[in-house]
Amino acid sequence: MVRRTLSGGARRPAGRRAAAALALLLTPGLLSLGPAAHADVSDTLDPGPINAGNTYGWYPLTWKYDWERGQSQANWPTQSNGSGMSHISWWALNVDSSNPNADGNYSNPSTGSVSATQPRKGKAYGRWEARIKTSSWPKAGGAQYRAVAELVPQGGDQCGARTIGLGAFTPELTGDKWSSVRPTFDLYARAQGQQYTFQKAATWSSTHTGYHTLGVELKRKKVTWFVDAKAVAQAPIRTGGVPYIFRFALEAPNATTPMMRTRYQVDWVRYFKLHKPSKKYKKINKKANNVPVASASPYAGC
Fold first, then answer.
1. What DSSP string runs through 90-126?
2. Which among 117, 175, 200, 289 is placed 20 to 30 Å from 235, CA to CA?
3. What's the CATH code of the domain at 84?
4. Are 147 and 133 in contact (CB under 8 A)?
5. How much is the pTM?
6. Distance between terminal CA atoms of the chain?
């Protein structure tokens, strides 16, 4: 018999729950409770069990990565011009500014940018969502990274001219640690020499673990952004059927500036087709069509 959590997700086996508890002590906020039944969003809950997928009735779920219960443990292809790396640990994809095994005391600053890119065939249209957080350690000093979650063309993207940003932000100081508890997300979409931008400040309680859910719905003539299970902005953009894949990155201004030790953690990512949600979700999806339109400006690229 499979035991269920209050949020509706299946519990891990006992052995993995014990290991997960240890990981939670070492790095707070690593565990996701899994998808929940549709419910109203509350500022007292971590984003994740409640997300855009189950709030707006997205389906069908075509693929997901959550690195649990037999999911692929293969690392996503990594690019770095400095000390960064990516790895699968704590049932999550981690984009680290430095190798944690080489400097477990975080006594040295990092250098350069690092990114991890989805290792599968892209999709031209649909709904994408990810649950993310960052943690930074100021012990060694250094400048702050910019954390980025994007959809990029599978075949490459010259100067970001066709990139869709689910959310980019700079970690904030919470106590003695820089984190993603309450960031301001930069949302953007570019195509055909045009750029649309919008800013959304997170409003979740400062007591939560720092996780947020970022999503986009991309149709042939429109993109809609979702932050923490709420539609927040839209833009009339045509991407021309380019297949997109996920990219998560920590971006530095150059390869040599000392940077603050930072970890970008991706708890799960999901892709849904554009099937029409059931009547149960008609009202909330109608509201999603009335969110503000992002600001437009020319985009020259490099």
1. TTEEEEESS-TTT-TT--S-B-S-EEEE--S--BSSE
2. 117
3. 2.60.120.200
4. no
5. 0.82
6. 56
